[in-house]
Write a structure and sequence with these properties.
- It is globular, with a radius of gyration of 23 Å.
- The longest helix has 16 residues.
- The strands form three sheets. A six-stranded mixed beta sheet has the order 6-7-8-3-9-10, sandwiched between helices. A four-stranded antiparallel beta sheet has the order 2-1-4-5.
- It has ten helices and 14 strands.
- The protein has two domains: 221 residues, Rossmann fold, CATH 3.40.50.300; 62 residues, Alpha-Beta Plaits, CATH 3.30.70.1560.
- It is α/β, with parallel strands linked by helices.
- It holds the Pfam family ABC_tran.
- InterPro entries: AAA+_ATPase (IPR003593), ABC_transporter-like_ATP-bd (IPR003439), ABC_transporter-like_CS (IPR017871), ABC_transporter_ATP-binding (IPR050763), P-loop_NTPase (IPR027417).
Length: 330
């Protein structure tokens, strides 16, 4: 007799939300996130992401539907479900005049964790976040990246089985972002399920194994990241060349060749096309390639296809604001 499959970390069924002004933010959303997964929730502004996250984290009331966290009904057993879940919002929302150690210990106290145990956990989480040397410093003195890591450390104080991050790297530079990726990978590798919303689509492609794309309150695509990306038939490359590009660029049948600048060639080609054909054409034209790198963010291309909005993928991240009584957040 085979063992029953473990319950989903998050199970959403026919979730609907209509605000008082008649705006229907969610129109029957259903999705499942497996235990241990690193899952991306993507969509343009106004798609319903923040409304969905708000309902799952019990900050927004649903109109109808069901949400279960590790098979615990959020509506029927809210306190029990919330103890399984940690939320890292986009905005920095701790007291800047408190010390990181106090922030973590006080947060644990809200969940009934004894102070002695909270002190032990706080040291563990601050060390994991590489913030232990800042434990007694005023939080306002921390860098932007440190503050982001402190937010994650605070959420981990309750040892959540499911961690939800809403635009965790919005507004930070690429070095800080990549450092946070390492932190999130480590948390996920320890067994914590992570759901990530992000406007940085390369972030989702680098971190996540599965994804759902939401648009106009509906899930328009969901599944394994690799399977969805494999549906794209175009790849883009940037070739860095040694000398100035000639005025007349070589013709490569089947590929689009453009000059990005005087020393960079921009090439789009079918995925099935042999890259050696491009190198041969460049060599014949006397163009010497110094280095090559992937140009296109394939997930971004998929995102545009699924939502049907050419400007959606380029929409800048903005501060997430909770829905008011008269309308939804993004």
């Amino acid at each position: 007799m085979s063992e029953a499959a473990p319950p989903a970390a998050l199970s959403v069924r026919d979730l609907r939300k209509t605000y008082d002004n008649g705006v229907e933010a969610l129109k029957g959303v259903s999705l499942d996130v497996a235990p241990g997964d690193f899952y991306a929730l993507l969509g343009p502004n106004g798609a319903g992401k923040s409304t969905l996250i708000g309902i799952v984290s019990s900050l927004v009331n649903k109109t109808s539907g069901e949400v279960r966290v590790f098979d615990v009904d959020l509506h029927a057993e809210r306190d029990r479900a919330m103890r399984l879940l940690g939320l890292v919002p986009q905005e920095i929302n701790f007291n800047m005049f408190e010390k990181p150690l106090d922030i973590l210990v006080n947060y644990a106290g809200f969940y009934g964790i004894p102070r002695a145990e909270a002190m032990v956990r706080a040291e563990e989480e601050l060390r994991s976040a590489q913030l232990w040397d800042k434990a007694e410093k005023m939080s306002r003195t921390l860098s932007g990246g440190m503050k982001r890591r402190l937010m994650i450390a605070r959420a981990m104080m309750t040892r959540p089985k499911l961690l939800i991050l809403d635009e965790p790297t919005a507004g930070v530079d690429i070095e800080i972002r990549r450092g946070m990726w390492q932190t999130l990978r480590r948390i996920n590798a320890s067994g914590t399920t992570i759901i990530l919303t992000t406007h940085y689509l390369e972030e989702a492609e680098n971190l996540c194994r599965n994804l759902a794309i939401i648009d106009h309150g509906r899930i328009v695509e969901a599944g394994p990241m690799r399977a969805l990306l494999s549906r794209l038939d175009v790849e883009g490359f940037l070739f860095d060349v040694e000398d100035d590009l000639p005025a007349m660029l070589p013709d490569v049948p089947g590929a689009q060749v453009r000059a990005a600048d005087a020393h960079t060639l921009d090439v789009d080609m079918p995925r099935a096309m042999d890259l050696n054909r491009v190198f041969a054409a460049l060599d014949a034209a006397g163009i010497r390639v110094r280095s090559m790198r992937n140009k296109s963010n394939r997930l971004e291309e998929l995102f545009v296809r699924m939502t049907g909005d050419p400007g959606a993928a380029a929409t800048p991240a903005r501060a997430a604001t909770p829905p008011g009584p008269n309308g939804p957040a993004a």
